[in-house]
Amino acid sequence: MLKKLKVGWFSFSCSEDSTIIFTELLNSHYQKWKNEIDFRSILVMQKKEDVDNLDVAFIEGAITSVLQEEKLKSIRRKAKKLVAVGSCAIIGMPSVQRNMFDEKIKSELSPFLIRFAYLDKVKKISDVVMVDDMVPGCPMNEEVFLKVINKYLCEFGITNKQK
Ligand code: SF4
């Protein structure tokens, strides 16, 4: 069996535009990636999910609830490398906008935060777990994403040299 890079793609609170960019990239890269990448979890492509023992986890979006925080920590424990994808994941914006609301709006929102078990403050990914790499942009920069994925394909011994 060919060795493949075990990859998971996870979206938290965001508009999921980097996921759309990723699916666009599949148009030109799928034929190559299907021999190199084992997609263990990516809801936009498949229902099956196996997040144990991932090589690389790509994380899109910001963290808005305790449940999301726990899921992210669990992914971190199971992934050798974790990459924050897009501005919401890296710096929090624009998903963290509610952190900047004034006290009046915050108190109006507070019943909803309690009802849906949201955190008082939205967090960027590095507020919760260690991040190994970043793909900036809103949505993500395709060229940087390709550099990162090629770097890990090489680092994990799937391909011989970085492209
Ligand atoms: S980084 Fe931009 S494109 Fe990506 S989820 Fe956030 S708002 Fe949407």
From TrEMBL:
Q: List where the protein spans the membrane.
A: none
Instruction: List the Gene Ontology MF annotations in alphabetical order.
Output: iron-sulfur cluster binding; oxidoreductase activity
Gene3D superfamilies reported for this sequence: NADH:ubiquinone oxidoreductase-like, 20kDa subunit
Has the keyword Oxidoreductase been applied to this entry? yes
Q: Which residues form the NADH:ubiquinone oxidoreductase-like 20kDa subunit domain?
A: 35-151
Q: Entry's InterPro entries?
A: Hydrogenase_assoc-protein, NADH_UbQ_OxRdtase-like_20kDa, NiFe_Hase_small_N_sf
Task: Tell me what organism the protein belongs to.
Answer: Candidatus Gottesmanbacteria bacterium CG_4_10_14_0_8_um_filter_37_24
**What is the protein name stated in its UniProt record?**
NADH:ubiquinone oxidoreductase-like 20kDa subunit domain-containing protein
Q: Name one Pfam family in it.
A: Oxidored_q6
Keyword tags: Oxidoreductase
